[in-house]
Hints:
- The chain is of the alpha/beta class.
- It folds into two domains: about 1-120 and about 185-250, Alpha/Beta hydrolase fold, catalytic domain (Rossmann fold), CATH 3.40.50; about 125-170.
- Helices cover about 40% and strands about 20% of the residues.
- The protein contains eleven helices and eight strands.
- It has an eight-stranded mixed β-sheet with strand order 1-2-4-3-5-6-7-8, with helices on both faces.
- Strand 7, helix 9 and strand 8 (about 225-230) form a beta-alpha-beta unit.
- Helix 1 packs parallel to helix 11, helix 2 (about 65-80) packs across helix 3 (about 95-100) and helix 4 (about 125-145) packs antiparallel against helix 6.
- The longest helix has 17 residues, at about 125-145.
- It is globular.
- Mean pLDDT is about 90; it is low at about 125-135.
Amino acid sequence: MRREVMGISTEYIEKGEGGIVLMLHGWGSKAELFSGLIEQCSKKYKVLAPDLPGFGGTEEPGEPWDVRAYADFVLKFLEPYAPESVILLGHSFGGRVILKLCEMQLPFEIKKIIMVDAAGIKPKKSLKSRASLMMYKIGRNIMSTPPLKKLFPNAVENMRKKRGSADYNAASPIMRQTLVKVVNEDLRRVLPKIKAPTLLIWGTKDTATPLSDGELMEKLIPDSGLVKIAGAGHYSFLEAPGYVARVLASFLNL
């Protein structure tokens, strides 16, 4: 399905009837990856799963966005449904957006939350990492000077590719700036304020959002429980679909 949200042509999935379950995908992903969870939850709920701006079939924003802009987009997306309550499910970046929603004034109640290998906690940089970043910035500034830029026109871009993550290197200029804004906001401050019952699902081998993030969320979110998926990585809901389905069925009374 497709409609315009905040002036952006938005692709989304809508299936089922009943109370709303909103599913928010991760960075570089799309709603289609939730197909198994959508099928399961739509037997009892109306499931809504948009491709967030810049991903899947949805247009990029016209300028770099931060997490708040994505949260505002989600609220605009939900407006036509005028829900009294919503169950939120977020994977990776989608979890980050959920955390931002939890500190905003909302027109509905957050009934329950499911966070799957979720982002939102900014890791502390080691001394080695900080030194590496400083040297990169110095080198970039030097190679950007007109004489050196003329002699070595690709030097800065090569440095960026060598240092940047796969997500950063694969992104467009607008989405690169968006990624920088997004990952530099630490949302751990929100965790103690979350009132909704929260299910945390985590792969024990997740290297993108490590299990320690899930353990910290369980510690700081008052009404939460952590389910560890042994041997699974960052996409635990795809790597262990049967196990995750059983956990979800129990939490949502499916």
